[in-house]
Amino acid sequence: MKTVAFSFLFLISGCLGYGKKEYSFKINSDGQSGKAKICYVDINSDGKTEEEIKNDMDMLIRDYHTGKKLEEEFPFAKNFEKKLKVHDGKLTGEMSFEFDSLSFAGLYRYDKHVIMKFLPKEETYFKSNGKYGGEVMPVVFWSDSLNLKLIVFSENKASDSSRVSLVKYFETSGFHSEH
After folding, report:
1. Which of 55, 77, 107, 149 could in theory staple to 129 by disulfide, Cβ–Cβ 3.0 to 4.6 A?
2. Domain count, the chain
């Protein structure tokens, strides 16, 4: 398996997309701080030409690996760990970071026993170890849990035939070292 350290993005901007996103949060005993891991599975492009697709791959590496896009998206997060790899035949980006406040990870405390996460409109709930509020109230609630899991699908489904997997472009990019 080829792996690259990687600064990540919300992959919805531009021509890049993903099939699903997997969130994992481990909340520390203080109930506020913890560690987040977010995996973007099946990273893809909506490029129409070989050049556009290659440009998307270059942007993925240039802007999000060597650039500061992730740090800009998560200014209060610390101790980033980032990877880009081919897993189960799909280009997968993984980032993890530590946070001092639930809100820095997009989580909120409903009351002293319940943590919640709002889902943005471009994400469709798939499953979690919490309770989903439904389409009318796209929020996931976790009661008395310190290990939160959530899987969502992207609005721009990777299975859409107009989208192109970036696996081949990653494997031929020459960018396969740990950073």
Report:
1. 149
2. 1
